[in-house]
Amino acid sequence: MDQIAIISDIHGNMPALEAVLQDIQRHGISRIMCLGDIAGKGPSSDLVVDTIRSACEQVVKGNWDDLISQVGVHDFTKWHQELMGSERLEYLGSLPFSIEFMMSGRFVRLFHASPRSMYERVQPWDDEEQRKSLFAASELSLVQRPADVAGYGDIHNAFLQNLGGRTLFNAGSVGNPLDITQASYVILEGEYGGETPAPFSIRFERVPYDIEQAVQQAVEAQMPYLEPYIRELRTAQYRGLPQPKQD
């Protein structure tokens, strides 16, 4: 059986990324895919980008990666742009939209936020039809067929749902989780590239990391929007506000 680690939303948090990569290594997994938002929010976007490029087999573009790669357009990204330099910004701008493959007879599509946009936000408590739409292909898809398994990041809230016989999952966030204060990632297990039905599983992993080290790095870097970032790391609440509850 093959194993794939799915990570997402590191957001410049190097202590969290290091903890997750160590856990992936502990499981003996060599294939890692990243669902975007490598940079931004945290103080170490440059180091995180370099590490992701080295560690990950495939990486898709997140909304923060897209914003930061647009040099000089957004005031709140300028600090991160200056930290990263032009070559890393070019790398972020060149990232693909989605990853698609067969696994144990299932067509798997991975993307950052939705199959239509890096900016469309879909939560696990949203309308069922909206969640089901995440299986659909779009003009941005590599293959024009609905996914049997759709996986994404963006919302920093890990979950798994069965919707009409198809499987939807969110990998959560490595560096900025908004459900519990531990880094999150997913392990897919099955026959990678397999066209015929075979055993298949999705497993969620939660990894503790040194949050206070991440806070101290942000303080020492004198990064912008420092207090909201610290509150998110320490409380897992978005900008200090409670998350909506599922019905």
Automatic annotation (TrEMBL):
Transmembrane domains' residue ranges: none
Pfam family, one: Metallophos_2
Residue intervals of the Calcineurin-like phosphoesterase domain: 3-189
Top-rank lineage group of the source organism: Bacteria
Recorded GO CC terms: cytoplasm
Gene3D superfamilies: 3.60.21.10
Any one GO molecular function term: phosphatase activity
Family per record: Belongs to the metallophosphoesterase superfamily. YfcE family.
Protein name as it appears in the record: Metallophosphatase family protein
